[in-house]
Each structure stands twice: as structure tokens, then as C-alpha cells.
Design a protein that fits this description.
The chain is mainly α. Helix content is 65%, strand content 0%. Helix 1 packs antiparallel against helix 2. The longest helix has 16 residues. The chain is globular and about 30 Å long.
Length: 60
Amino acid sequence: MLAQEAHSAADRADARILLRMIEVVDQGDYGALAQLVQALRAPYRERLGEIPAEAERGEA
């Protein structure tokens, strides 16, 4: 998990942002993802890849 890697690397702020990103997805607040991803440092943004604008339909 990327948040664990960030925490282990002493990148505590990035780890907190990554955990918050999980929370906003669980809450369905995809609009907040764009703001949170901008707060991450570049190495973590690059590893995340494209951030969805909304939940994908048909997932179980």
C-alpha cells in the first residue's frame, strides 16, 4: 500500500493525504480527490496514476 510506504519513508504528510484519499472515496466525494492529489509530492502522484472523477459503474 502506497500510504504504508510513505509512512515508512517518514513522508508522514503524504501518508496522511493518501489515507484521506481512501476516506473520500469511501464517502463518494470524488471531487475532493483532485485537490488531495495536488497536495501530494510528485513521486506519489506519479505512482497513483489517473484519479477517477467518479465511481466506476458495475463494480461489486
